[in-house]
TrEMBL record:
Gene: hemB
EC code: 4.2.1.24
UniProt keyword terms in alphabetical order: Heme biosynthesis, Lyase, Porphyrin biosynthesis
CDD domains (UniProt xref): ALAD_PBGS
Assembly notes: Homooctamer.
Function noted in UniProt: Catalyzes an early step in the biosynthesis of tetrapyrroles. Binds two molecules of 5-aminolevulinate per subunit, each at a distinct site, and catalyzes their condensation to form porphobilinogen.
Reactions performed catalytically: 2 5-aminolevulinate = porphobilinogen + 2 H2O + H(+)
NCBIfam families with a match to the protein in the record: PRK09283.1
InterPro entries hit by this protein: ALAD (IPR001731), Aldolase_TIM (IPR013785)
Protein name (Swiss-Prot/TrEMBL): Delta-aminolevulinic acid dehydratase
Length: 325
């Protein structure tokens, strides 16, 4: 009887590794950082085991770890009590995120700084835009977002990442940056950002839960793949240099299809809830945490991700660069 013996190439570790179709590298990881506007803050977050909230004056402590891990970059989120209806703290030149950008670029030119652009961390109502009654004023919001983006670019951010899911934000931000001389600053929007319960730990840490209602009128229904592809296409046409898709684990089909359909780099966002599930299961001894981390990150890359925003970045880099599984 004739049949294919595909197992021949799986017989030894050396053979298996030689023919891996998907490989992970630490330079492909982007690590989220929560930047507190206080002083002497280096606080471990119970919602996200192993993740810290840090003030600018102690930022060097985590930067030492990031540099040693040889990961590609960081994405910054502000944490502040200085909130108002307009989220005006987000545009201040001496804001925590702006200070952190300058600090990181002084520390090392090799650490890419992705600046998340949104209003939810800065508004008293916790929504991602400017309110008109209890609804988001889309066009007013994108003007404010463009001012935030410009402030981050002036501080030295390498990449601007609008995460608000407003219509027209990429074009508006591109026009604002170009008109101020930042023509080479890339914009990488969250193009397919689904309304997900998996963001809960992040919202607790960033103190960005909405005071009323939810975000389903601007974040996408997770039931809709075709709509996600339309969102991605619209952002590309407006000038996006790459796109972010989140949550990663529940969007692998979207990542895969987008990779085939669009000739543009894709970043998967391995979100806080996905991270928390792995950490919790690992603590309970239900799984081998290190093996699962590498497996899920590999799945994201196999689906088509060129880079991954992940809270696992530091530990995954240590596993890849310092240990065999």
């Amino acid at each position: 009887m004739e049949f294919k013996r595909l197992r021949r190439l799986r017989q030894t570790k050396a053979l298996r590794e030689l023919f891996y179709e998907t490989r992970l590298y630490s330079k492909e990881f982007i690590f989220p950082l929560f930047i507190d506007d206080g002083k002497n803050v280096f606080e471990r977050m119970p919602q996200l085991d192993g993740i810290v909230k840090v003030s600018v004056d102690r930022l060097h402590e985590i930067l030492d770890e990031i540099k040693k891990a040889d990961i590609g970059g960081v994405i910054l989120f502000g944490v502040t009590s200085q909130k108002d209806e307009m989220g005006s703290y987000a545009t201040k030149d001496d804001g925590a995120v702006q200070q952190a950008i300058r600090k990181i670029k002084e520390y090392s030119k090799d650490i890419l700084v992705f600046a998340d652009v949104c209003l939810c961390e800065y508004t008293s109502h916790g929504h991602c835009g400017i309110l008109k009654g209890e609804k988001i004023d889309n066009d007013k919001t994108i003007e404010v977002l463009s001012e935030i983006a410009l402030s981050y670019a002036k501080a030295g951010a390498d990449i601007i990442c609008p995460s608000d899911m407003m219509d027209g934000r990429v074009a508006t931000i591109r026009e604002k940056l170009d008109s101020h001389g930042f023509v080479y600053t890339p914009i990488i929007p969250y193009s397919a950002k689904f309304a997900s319960s998996l963001y809960a730990p992040f919202r607790d840490v960033a103190n960005s839960r909405p005071a009323f209602g939810d975000r389903k009128s601007y974040q996408m229904p997770y039931q809709n793949k075709r709509e996600a592809l339309r969102e991605i296409e619209a952002d590309i046409l407006e000038g996006a240099d790459a796109v972010i898709i989140k949550p990663a684990l529940t969007s692998l089909d979207v990542i895969s299809t987008a990779k085939e359909k669009f000739n543009i780099p894709i970043i998967a966002y391995n979100v806080s809830g996905e991270y928390a599930m792995v950490k919790s299961a690992g603590k309970l001894g239900l799984l081998n945490e290190e093996e699962v981390i590498i497996e899920i990150l590999t799945a994201m890359k196999r689906a088509g991700a060129d880079a991954i925003i992940t809270y696992h970045a530091l530990e995954a880099a240590k596993i890849l660069n310092g240990k065999e599984l």
